[in-house]
Amino acid sequence: MNEDRRTQSPRTADERSTLTAMLQFQRDTLEMKCAGLTVEQLKRRAIAPSGLSLIGLVRHAAEVERGWFRNVVNGERSHSPWTPPGSTDWADFDVDGLDEAGVAEAFAVWRDECARARAVVDVADSLDDRGHLGEETYSLRYVLAHMIEEYARHNGHAEPPPRTHRRGHRRVARALDRLGERPDPQAGWPVIVPRMPELVAPTPRLHTSWLEAHAEWNPGAHQDGAGMRLAEGDALADPDVFAAWVGRLRAQSDPTRPLAEGWVHATHWWIVEDGGYAGAIDLRHDLNDFLLRAGGHIGYSIRPSARRRGLATWALGAVLPEARVLGLDRVLVTCDEGNIASARTIERNGGVLEDVRETELGRKRRYWIAL
């Protein structure tokens, strides 16, 4: 039997952590029940003449994630990829014509909506934040509890068909592999691999992904925490030049290496999601006058296509223990005065605003985080 990789609910955590973990457990349950099934098994109706199928439930889950978190809580006007705007003929469960590409699309849309939902919850000020559906008003607390109920009810429906036919498993395993899953050689079935972000040391291995991310920024745009000052004038599209720059990034953390005037030692990490470069964060070991005024101990940037997923909040929280290892008892983190998203990222990690001041980088909000 495969190890249960579902998110486990904390027993003594705060209300937000408990509710979000319980909801993630239910999301994981639906994905676990779909793992290893062929396209035809995913489309098979539960009991005739029922319209329920596993892949239909995945599409329906994407719809309710989108509707409640993005439209109700976040006030967006997003539309279903399957049901035309204004139509009352819901197409979530209309899956008879789906092929492998349609199954892959359903999982991709659902996972994306789950990530967007987590980001909406992450940036909310309180579980008392409210949204509207028609004339009704709903708190974020209600929405989280309702979504746990929604998944729990449908996960009761999501009983996979017997796995008695192995013909075609290799083909489906390859399709699931493209969805970010890997086969379990002992069980003979694909199993879900958690898609958690991670911090890694800069590496030439991510050259192509880094270039794709770099192209998303406007020319000359500042990428805080990315160490671009160490690459000024370099043609980073050249693999050898890129590898040399990566070497300089990694060397900057070595406290025994002398640095040029105005520089401090710093540790650089890249934020990696689904095996690709999603952003960068660095931890400056000391503060010089410039960093005390404007730059702070920690800088970070997320590629535009990876924003609103909570990656910055997660990465900042992951680096704070590293600051404690350096012997710091508090860190300074700054952001532009008008960057509300970054301000919330800092505040969610315990940042306390000291002041807003004019600096050589413009007006900056300066926060201290106690470690």
Task: Give structural notes.
- By secondary structure, the chain is an alpha+beta fold.
- The chain folds into two domains: 15-191, Four Helix Bundle (Hemerythrin (Met), subunit A) (Up-down Bundle), CATH 1.20.120; 198-370, Gcn5-related N-acetyltransferase (GNAT) (Aminopeptidase), CATH 3.40.630.
- Helix content is 40%, strand content 17%.
- It contains eleven helices and eleven strands.
- The protein has helices spanning 15-34, 39-43, 54-73, 100-123, 140-157, 169-178, 207-214, 239-251, 289-295, 311-325, 340-348; strands at 130-133, 136-139, 182-184, 189-191, 198-200, 266-273, 276-284, 298-302, 330-336, 352-359, 362-370.
- A four-stranded antiparallel beta sheet has the order 5-6-7-8.
- A hairpin with a 2-residue loop joins strand 6 (266-273) and strand 7 (276-284).
- The radius of gyration is 23 Å and the shape is globular.
- Mean pLDDT is 82; it is low at 162-195.
